[in-house]
Design goal:
Blueprint lengths: L10 E5 L6 E5 L4 E5 L4 H11 L6 E2 L1 H12 L13 H10 L8 E2 H7 L6 H9 L12 E2 L12 H11 L2
Parallel strand pairs: 1-4, 5-6
Antiparallel strand pairs: 1-2, 2-3
Helix pairs in contact: 4-5
The structure holds a DNA duplex.
Amino acid sequence: MRQLPPQSEPTFGFTDSPFGECCIVFSTEGICALTFPEDRESALYDIEQRFPETNFTQNDAKAKRFASMIFEKKEIPTLNPIGTDFQQTVWNALKNIPVGETTTYTKIAEAIGRSKAVRAVGTAIGANPIAFLIPCHRVIRTDGGLGGFRWGLEVKKKMLEWEKK
DNA sequence: AGGACAACGGTCT
DNA sequence: AGACCGTTGTCCT
């Protein structure tokens, strides 16, 4: 009997990154979350809230392999962000921001043709499930302020520094 | 420079 | 229907 192709069951794992320990969550389709939680317990809580229907098994080695792909080889694996149409549109727009550059919430709103929806864009960016790979950290305020960051402004600052140069 | 405030639109309860 | 937000422009002190 022929062997089935390797199945990628839903997994999650913790691993080091240039910005502290991160948690990578894989669905069968690709990476569905990348977070930089304060502690592992809150990371697990976050997964449970986001994917109450799915059972994930822990695989730190896999997370580590992907971390080196992402942060050392600087490749972007297949992503599988879950969100509303509006959120998908916003997250797609974020991918067009070049490495080492920043843009503003207003410019993203304009880029997706919803210049009046700045506030909603901010909320959608805040809901980005895949930090760093969907570069929400490259979005700052029009007045030059850092804006917000789900995983702490220190991490956002570090990411921008790391990408500069 | 910094604070208060209203208007904005998507999402959740 | 109301409240909450990773915003912003305006109007103050």
